[in-house]
Amino acid sequence: MKIINSKQIKEWDQLTIKHQNISSWDLMERAVLKLTENIVNDIPSKAPIIIFCGKGNNGGDGLGVARELEKLGYKTLIYILKSENYSEDNLKNQQLLSSNELHFFNLNEELQLPENSVIIDAIFGIGINQPLDDDWNSIFNQIEKSNPTQIISIDLPSGFIADLPMQKYFPCCKSNKTYTFQVPKLGLLFPENQIYTDEFILLDIGLEQNVSNEFETDYYFIQKNDIQKFLKKISKFSHKGTFGHTLIIGGSLGKIGSIVLTAKAALKTGSGLVTTYTPQCGLNILQTNLIESMSLVDDSEKQIEYFPEIKIYQGVAVGMGMGQHPTTDANFINWIKNQKQPLVIDADALNCLAKQKDCFTLIPQDSVLTPHPKELQRLIGEWENDFEKLEKVKKLAVFHQLTFIIKGFYTAVITSDGKTYFNSTGNWGMATAGSGDTLSGIIASLIGQGYNSSEASILGVYLHGLAGDFAVKKIHPHSLIASNISDFISEAYFYLDSNF
Ligand SMILES: NC(=O)C1=CN([C@@H]2O[C@H](COP(=O)(O)OP(=O)(O)OC[C@H]3O[C@@H](n4cnc5c(N)ncnc54)[C@H](OP(=O)(O)O)[C@@H]3O)[C@@H](O)[C@H]2O)[C@H](O)CC1
Ligand SMILES: [K+]
């Protein structure tokens, strides 16, 4: 699914109206019905409901929801911004409510807000492209101080600018949940913006799919149907050679577990063969814990000192648990600069590269880098905000023909053609030791199975998150450990095979 900007969404609105031969009112009514259908499930039956409405169409949505909730027997208190220029559909919605239900407010007003209410925030949506005036803080503070049980935003938390970096001092209504229409808004996917809404839920309001080609973008939100489009069909004549031979290089004394996790993930993802390359201390652990894998060992007991020949392997991951012994570091650099085939580069291999000047020139083209935030910072330096971080990484990805995976709640895959794919699967339980090792194993396995680096990264990140989502149906997120993720990769594949 494409992620487009606010201006493009407005154009999409207009094209939908034209192509589907409907009015803007009809479109708003669709939005209102979808919102109401969802919001009723959020509201405890007796909770007071306060709906804050602005003067544009976001306010129109809020007024429409108020009308629908009243039809269902809910009592609502409606506050609407006093204005001279309401949008047409906003006014029409006002007229459908009896005038004594509407409380018009000014920004400097003290409002009478009941405590413990559910607040629906429909003041601003995608219609703002610059920060709200500071005067708005008074209204947002009053909302917060009224101790609401929850705040539900329509389309965006009011004051949130979807396509530009938010600054902490911009006035904004912070909400628990945002129902956003049709497509995620870019800013909602950035970790630094999590303070504005705990979660967003997509509502499909039937914007015309046939015109979506018109909108150019470098950003995508990856869901099941996107993945299904490029999943390889398996031939009945397949044999273990078809599914590739994956090599996992890493481990050091006390950190062999990371290689067990990576290798297990590669096997569970479908590699025909998996071989590990560790220091000698890894041999017994691997042969005992993962009998399906084969082990090669370095001459050294505690850390890798010589790096292997990799030509016979179709997928290679390097760096997990590798440590940063000076000999390992030096030999890794000598080794990597002579490699030609794509690698999945993780953990200490990234830390080692970060110590080199112009480190990206040492990495074979089409490699995949999987840094967590600290590793990324070591590689690319500081960034002002998540927009800048993405831009920096994008430039490096294109210039050096690499794929970067920026891990986070919505993990982003930045490919060598400058596109960014945000992942939609995963949960907080997956923020656990070894989760990243598992991801590297999945991606190396997929490269081994013949996916290119971008496909393997997008699919790998999605599968990893999906396996985690299946895992937390059986295991509490607190108790989820990395090896559980691999145990549920099979469920993730079953889900992708299915058509529901
Ligand atoms: N396709 C869809 O997604 C649909 C969306 N719908 C809803 O409509 C809103 C967008 O409505 P719009 O009227 O364009 O915009 P807003 O309601 O968000 O806000 C517009 C008003 O805000 C004023 N404004 C703009 N910038 C500022 C600012 N910095 N400070 C204060 N006020 C600002 C603006 O006033 P002007 O006088 O400046 O014009 C507008 O009055 C979308 O988010 C959805 O909720 C449809 O319901 C269905 C289809
Ligand atoms: K809103």
TrEMBL record:
CDD domains in the record: YXKO-related (cd01171)
GO terms under biological process: metabolite repair; nicotinamide nucleotide metabolic process
Named cofactor requirement(s): Mg(2+); K(+)
Catalytic activity: (6R)-NADPHX = (6S)-NADPHX; (6S)-NADPHX + ADP = AMP + phosphate + NADPH + H(+); (6R)-NADHX = (6S)-NADHX; (6S)-NADHX + ADP = AMP + phosphate + NADH + H(+)
Subunit field text: Homotetramer.
Molecular-function GO terms, alphabetical: ADP-dependent NAD(P)H-hydrate dehydratase activity; ATP binding; metal ion binding; NAD(P)HX epimerase activity
This enzyme's EC code(s): 4.2.1.136, 5.1.99.6
Domain of life per record: Bacteria
Protein's name according to its UniProt entry: Bifunctional NAD(P)H-hydrate repair enzyme
Sequence similarity: Belongs to the NnrE/AIBP family.
Listed InterPro entries: Carbohydrate_kinase_pred_CS, CARKD, Nnr, Ribokinase-like, YjeF_N_dom, YjeF_N_dom_sf
Record domain YjeF N-terminal: where: 9-213
Residues reported in the UniProt entry to bind (6S)-NADPHX: 57-61, 125-131, 155, 321, 372, 437
SUPFAM superfamilies in UniProt: Ribokinase-like, YjeF N-terminal domain-like
Domain YjeF C-terminal, chain residue ranges per copy: 223-496
Binding site for AMP: 407-411, 436
Annotated positions binding K(+): 58, 121, 158
Keywords (A to Z) from UniProt: ATP-binding, Isomerase, Lyase, Metal-binding, Multifunctional enzyme, NAD, NADP, Nucleotide-binding, Potassium
Main function: Bifunctional enzyme that catalyzes the epimerization of the S- and R-forms of NAD(P)HX and the dehydration of the S-form of NAD(P)HX at the expense of ADP, which is converted to AMP. This allows the repair of both epimers of NAD(P)HX, a damaged form of NAD(P)H that is a result of enzymatic or heat-dependent hydration. Catalyzes the dehydration of the S-form of NAD(P)HX at the expense of ADP, which is converted to AMP. Together with NAD(P)HX epimerase, which catalyzes the epimerization of the S- and R-forms, the enzyme allows the repair of both epimers of NAD(P)HX, a damaged form of NAD(P)H that is a result of enzymatic or heat-dependent hydration.
A Pfam family hit: YjeF_N
